[in-house]
Write a structure and sequence with these properties.
alpha+beta
């Protein structure tokens, strides 16, 4: 193993072998969020301190379509410092921002409770009806991040799964 590969493998916690099971569980949750009829068509995780690259993303088409999540990261990169920008928005501990687009919605949650900041992004594709979908998308996305079903029952959410990796 070269010195370059050694550092590459150990600097990103998502690449560590001991996190493989946690990554698989997180991937299943991201895919599950995207394929349901919940106004979430794509989910992705970005580490702002690592150049705004997608670390993980849903691998299935959403209920309303297959958003190109990579395009959102390019758009996010237009912010000079997305982490501090998102840290100043939202309500209380819930730090998020919603960006309505013509036929889609981009929802970003900002979490800084880990060893490095994390952005959890959600995409909603709604041709000509994105505005109507915003409330439902926010409700379901928040539940996936914090692990609550609509009946109030708790499950291991994205934030808890990230805690095992980061």
């Amino acid at each position: 193993m070269s010195l370059f590969n050694f550092f590459k493998k150990t600097t990103n916690p998502f690449d560590k072998e001991e996190n493989q099971m946690s990554r698989q569980a997180l991937q299943a949750l991201l895919d599950g969020a995207a394929k349901r009829d919940n106004k979430i068509d794509g989910v992705f995780i970005v580490l702002p301190n690592s150049g705004n690259h997608i670390t993980m993303q849903s691998q299935v088409s959403g209920f309303a379509g297959d958003p190109k999540v990579e395009n959102a990261v390019g758009w996010i990169g237009r912010f000079s410092n997305i982490g501090s920008t998102l840290d100043g928005v939202g309500y209380g501990k819930l730090k998020y921002a919603v960006f309505p687009m013509e036929d889609a919605i981009l929802l970003l949650f900002f979490e800084k409770d880990f060893t490095q900041p994390v952005i959890i992004g959600f995409f909603c594709l709604q041709k000509g009806d994105a505005e109507k979908a915003m409330g439902e998308m926010l409700y379901h996305a928040k539940n996936f991040v914090y692990g609550y079903e609509s009946n109030g029952k708790h499950f291991e959410g994205i934030k808890e799964m990230l805690a095992k990796i980061l």
